[in-house]
Structures are given as structure tokens and as C-alpha cells.
Design brief:
The protein has 312 residues and is α/β, with parallel strands linked by helices. Helices cover 26% and strands 26% of the residues. The chain is elongated, with a radius of gyration of 23 Å.
Length: 312
């Protein structure tokens, strides 16, 4: 089978590696141009490019797909299928029509739920107990194509987008290999999505990480988990940014009421009042310009006092 593989971040790497191990080595890997990354903002290749180069596969890095030269370049490969995993570009119609088996996408949810760029994060933020991966045929819509195969995975109580994403990337790699082999043998009947069940998972913004202390603590705890590794849940303390890495929700003792964001220190723990008479107990934090530490160490080092405010 002649394949082209399109992907960019680490989430896509297990699928590329699985295809290679399964003797379905892509002729070409398409990925985003090299970009500045990391603390030093040094220009670096994408994880997918690095993986392709380790295996000696040709790499193509167009900035845009909707230009004639890209169409001409990809068309000469005459692919049977184009595999798309977290590529980061909208696939144009000419590319959808190019391979005989279609453009096959691996999506990090059980479609039609959580269509969009951040399905794993939003599934955690919204308190889902289960998610999964879906292979689908790309069409002109946003994750609206016919579904091919689905695998389900529970969301654990301590899962973050990072930990869940790692599991789903490995699960999805196996599913993609199975999908391609069954497509080639004509063993899959594509299933249309039910649009009435669709939910959206839009791309995360930096502002999505800002904690609104009027929300109940259980919702805030889910947001903390869902925003790891990016953009991270954050608030302010004494005028400086405070990143919250781990937290859990509890009911305020005795039904006590505090203004949202008020610091509460009980039994050696650092907590903040949230909506509905709940408390968000902070477990691991990082003040602007410092390293990540336990909330207890932060509380002792900063001499946090009850009644101070977060987010003011």
C-alpha cells in the first residue's frame, strides 16, 4: 500500500512507528515547518520529522496546503491512502480526493463527541468517565467524516491530558494499522456520524487556563487536570502568576462560606474557596519565576496567611 503520512506532534509518532513496524512504511511524511520551541526558543523539527528521519523516510514541510505546488508534489506519489494524525492543517478537497482509499484520520475521542482540536482536554474538563479513539474518513467538514473503527478507554481519576493522551496515542496507533489493513481487504463499512450527538472541543487558548474562583471546586479540579501540559491552570497571588499543577476538591468544613478565591489553611493544607461552598485544595504549585513545588512548601516559604486572596 502506497501511503503518505501527515502529522506533527508527539501524539502522532506512535502511529508512524506502528505503520513502519507493520510493514506499511509511508513513502513520504508531511509535517509542519521547523519552529522555535522550548525555553530557548531554538528552531527545532517536529517530533514526527525526527521520527521520520530516524527511519530514513523523505520529509516534506509545506507551510500551506492550498497552493498548486503542494498539490503537484503530493500527486506524483499516487497514494492509496493518506494517514492524518494531529497534522494541524485543514485538508483541502483536492487532497481528500487524491487517494483511492481516502484520507484516514485518527481522532482522540469517540466521535461525534468532541470534534475539534483539543478533544482529550475537553473530555477531562467536562468530567467524562470514558473516551477513546476513532478512525474516520476525512471529508470537507470539521471531524464530520464517516467513522471506520472505534476503541474505548476509561478516564482515570488522576488522568491529565498528558497522561491520557499518551495512552490514546498508543491505542490509536494499533487502531490505525488495523483500519488500513481492513480497508485494503474491504472489511470495513464506514458509518455516518449522528450530528445530533456532536459536541465541540475547540483549540485551547492561554486564557482558558485562568481560574474563575466562582466555579465549584470539582469543576476547577477537572480544569487543572485537563489543562496539563498546556496552557496550565493559573491564578494570581500577591500580584504574581501562580500555576496550579495538582489540586483536589472538597466541601468546605461545616458549610463555611468564604468569598471566592479566599485562602483557607486548615490542617496544614493550602486551599482556596470556590463556588457552591466548596474548597479547592492545592497540592502542587509554581509561583512565577520559581520551580514547581508542593503547596505545603509554598505555603511555608511564602508565609501564606488565611484570608489572603487568589486571583485578585
Amino acid at each position: 500500500m502506497n501511503l503518505i503520512f501527515c502529522g506533527t506532534p508527539q501524539f502522532a509518532v506512535p502511529t508512524l512507528e506502528k505503520l513502519i513496524a507493520g510493514q506499511l512504511v509511508p513513502q513520504l511524511v508531511v509535517t509542519n515547518p521547523d519552529e522555535p520551541r522550548g525555553r530557548g526558543h531554538k528552531v527545532q523539527p517536529s517530533p514526527v520529522k525526527e521520527a521520520a528521519q530516524r527511519h530514513g523516510i523523505e520529509v516534506y514541510q509545506p507551510a500551506k496546503l492550498k497552493v498548486p505546488e503542494v498539490q503537484a508534489f503530493l500527486s506524483k506519489y499516487r497514494p492509496d491512502a493518506i494517514v492524518v494524525v494531529a497534522y494541524g492543517h485543514i485538508v483541502p478537497q483536492w487532497m481528500i480526493d487524491l487517494p483511492r482509499l481516502g484520507c484516514i484520520n485518527l481522532h482522540g475521542s469517540i466521535l461525534p463527541k468532541y470534534r475539534g482540536a483539543a478533544p482529550i482536554a475537553w473530555a477531562i474538563i467536562r468530567g467524562e468517565k470514558e473516551t477513546g479513539v476513532t478512525t474516520m474518513k476525512i471529508d470537507a467538514g470539521m471531524d464530520t467524516g464517516d467513522m471506520l473503527l472505534v476503541r474505548r478507554e476509561p478516564i482515570l481519576e488522576d488522568d491529565t491530558t498528558e497522561s491520557l493522551g499518551q495512552r490514546l496515542s498508543v491505542m490509536g496507533a494499533v487502531l490505525m494499522l488495523e483500519t488500513l489493513r481492513k480497508l485494503e481487504r474491504g472489511e470495513i463499512i464506514a458509518k455516518p456520524q449522528d450530528p445530533s450527538l456532536a459536541t465541540l472541543a475547540p483549540r485551547l487558548k492561554k486564557s482558558d487556563g485562568r481560574i474563575d474562583w466562582t466555579q465549584p471546586a470539582p469543576e476547577l479540579a477537572l480544569r487543572v487536570r485537563g489543562l496539563i501540559p498546556w496552557p496550565g491552570a493559573h491564578t494570581t497571588f500577591r500580584g504574581r502568576n501562580l500555576h496550579i499543577w495538582r489540586a483536589q476538591a472538597i466541601a468546605a468544613s461545616g458549610g463555611a462560606k468564604h468569598a471566592p478565591g479566599t485562602v483557607v489553611t486548615e490542617g496544614g493544607t493550602l486551599a482556596a474557596a470556590a463556588g457552591g461552598g466548596t474548597l479547592l485544595v492545592l497540592e502542587e504549585v509554581q509561583i512565577e519565576g520559581r520551580k514547581r513545588i508542593s503547596a505545603r512548601d509554598f505555603m511555608n516559604g511564602a508565609r501564606v496567611k488565611p484570608g489572603e486572596s487568589l486571583g485578585s
